[in-house]
Amino acid sequence: xxxxxxxxxxxxxxxxxxxxxxxxFALLEGVNIAAFIRGLFVNGAAGGFTVDLLISSFVFWIxxxxxxxxxxxxxxxxxxNLCIGLSCALPAYLWAxxxxxxxx
Length: 104
Hints:
By secondary structure, the protein is mostly helical. 83% of the residues lie in helices and 0% in strands. The longest helix is centred in the N-terminal third of the chain and has 27 residues.
């Protein structure tokens, strides 16, 4: 299995698994943004994971913008990051990078 295929599979998994948690939250709380944000920082463990993810996402954005000439355009992957999560956006970006490399 090629690296590109592995990245694509991980991007799909990274979209499906968090989506399951988001759907569960929406079923329990409704579409309640305030409750969602409170839940992100409900205790020290959740807050630590949330801040870690926010910092990692920001670093990913900086990395993508530093590679704009050699890599895929970053805006689509920032959208994935904000709407689905880093677990989908990062492997999707790596998949696109591998696809560009293989076709060049």
